[in-house]
Amino acid sequence: MNYFKLSALAALLPCCFVATSAHANPLSLGASVLYMQSPYKGGQDRYLPVPIINYESDNFYIRSLQAGYYLWKDRQDQLSLTVLGSPQYYDPDDNDDGDMKSLRKRHMTLMAGASYSHTADWGIIRTTLAGDVLNNSNGFIWDLAYLYRFELGDFTLTPGIGALWSSANQNRYYYGVSGSESSRSGLGRYRPDDSWSPYLQMSADYKINANWRASLVGRYSRLGSEVKDSPMVDNSSQVSLWTGVSYTF
User: Does residue 245 contact residue 27 with C-beta atoms inside 8 Å?
Assistant: First the structure.
């Protein structure tokens, strides 16, 4: 009934919730656990296992829940076509609130679009624009972030700040309440517009030895007013944590 989403994550889930560490070797495999705070009334926070699959080549990449094909790639700039899982969903059968149980189910979806990043001495600019391709929400998301990486021996720390834009269709699918749902549930009818949700993010990566790495990614998001004003939602913010261990070949 929440995200992941991982996704989701992680990815990205959430859709843009991806660790930012880069490795010289092309393939890493591992396991991770994602914690996601539910934004929904009566929703339960989730701990979800997420496999780590990272592969990087000159032409394409796989980053757990995101994959892409490079249109342009050099040391500073990378432009790619991308697909990513958006595991956000809502299942009324899993909800503890009586009114929320009368709402329809919202499904996970797959999104496709373009992603761009620029790396310089002053930091990293990263952005992704993607839209639903499975005819679920028919919505779009746009993620824009600035990050700065600190290299401390075998330890890498990457704080960041960003914002996630969700189109009106995206918000209406996951947070809107139709007239028929309002009649069944007693919740007020709600038809949100597009919204911006700013966030703070911190990524930590530790090189245990030549092959093994441990990572932790945390994000704190302030939900946009069009989201937090929904009768489905009882939080004004959301916390996500993703931790795992991977082996680089």
Answer: no
**CATH code of the domain in which 141 resides:** 2.40.160.40
Distance CA(115)–CA(142), nearest Å, equals: 10
Contact of 143 with 15, CB cutoff 8 Å? yes
User: Has residue 175 been placed in a domain?
Assistant: yes
- Read off the pLDDT of residues 40-70 as tens digits, 9 standing for 90 and up: 998 888 888 889 999 999 999 998 889 999 9
Q: pLDDT tens-digit profile of 110-140?
A: 999 999 999 999 999 999 999 999 999 999 9
Dihedral over alpha carbons 80, 134, 145, 228 (to 10 degrees): 170
Residue given tokens 């947070």 in the structure block? 175
Tell which phi-psi region holds residue 186, choosing left (phi > 0), alpha (psi between -120 and 50) or beta: left
* 48 occurs within a structural domain: yes
If one counts the domains in the chain, the total is 1
pTM above 0.85, yes or no: yes
Q: Which domain holds residue 124?
A: 27-248
pLDDT of residue 16: 39
Cα-based angle 80, 165, 137 (whole degrees, multiple of 5): 85
CA-to-CA dists, residue 40 to 164, 209, 228, 232, angstroms: 18, 41, 9, 6
